[in-house]
What we know:
Blueprint: H1 3-10, E1 27-30, E2 51-55, H2 61-64, E3 69-71, H3 74-86, H4 88-101, H5 106-121, H6 124-132, E4 146-151, E5 154-159, H7 170-185, E6 191-196, H8 216-225, H9 228-233, E7 239-241, H10 250-253
Parallel strand pairs: 1-2, 2-3, 5-6, 6-7
Antiparallel strand pairs: 4-5
Helix pairs in contact: 3-4, 4-5, 5-8
Amino acid sequence: MSAKEMAVALARPRISERWSPLAGSPAVILDGAPADVLASDLQGLAWLPAVTIGVASSLPEAVADAVDVRVETRDQAEAVAAAVQANPLASVTLVQLLRRTGEMPPQHAILAESQAYSTLQAGPEFSAWQKTYTRKASMPSREPAVRLDREGPRLLMTFNRPEKRNAFSAELRDALCEALALVHEDDEIESVIWTGAGPAFCSGGDLDEFGSFPDPATAHAIRATRNVGILLIGCAGRVRPHLHGACVGAGIELPAFCRHV
């Protein structure tokens, strides 16, 4: 629809029942806008329970800034809409999270993300993914998940699960939290060089542990209690990640908290 049509639709009291995963319409494409449509006319997009996709070439800049996803062509917009339709609950939850966390302090945004993630872990899309994935039994390692080596005022911190491309497991998370707590508590540590053993720095969350939580609420409580991102924020200037190989999910999210990568 055009931005003008959307501006009119947003004035209706039950607009959320028109575009929503529950209505079978989790995405809407805005393509074309007359000059008299302003960004203020589209403020309601901020709470619409649907992913809004704008074809930037046909929208004024101010209007394009109001949508969740900007693309250049109608074909690209259709491709995004198809991806949203494949996982509507996750897609809408994602954009609703991003809409409200942009201006939050990062510690608050991290907790909001965890709550959204826990919501999805209780939903049908996550359950459907679990049925497609065969877990592999992990052999216990005698090596620490995170290896620490001290050289005077410098700490060398190494992800040490090379056989799993340093997949981010609960064991690795706990060890990393302990290491970062040391950095916080020891002012004599001036710098931390953070690397990953093996072919990749970190390949993201360990899929063999996904869904092994006791329940989504407890999973959120664990992330709120022991959170690497929040610890990194407090020492971001001293920790320098050295990335190599595949850096997926947590493998790129966590280094992004640091000042230099």
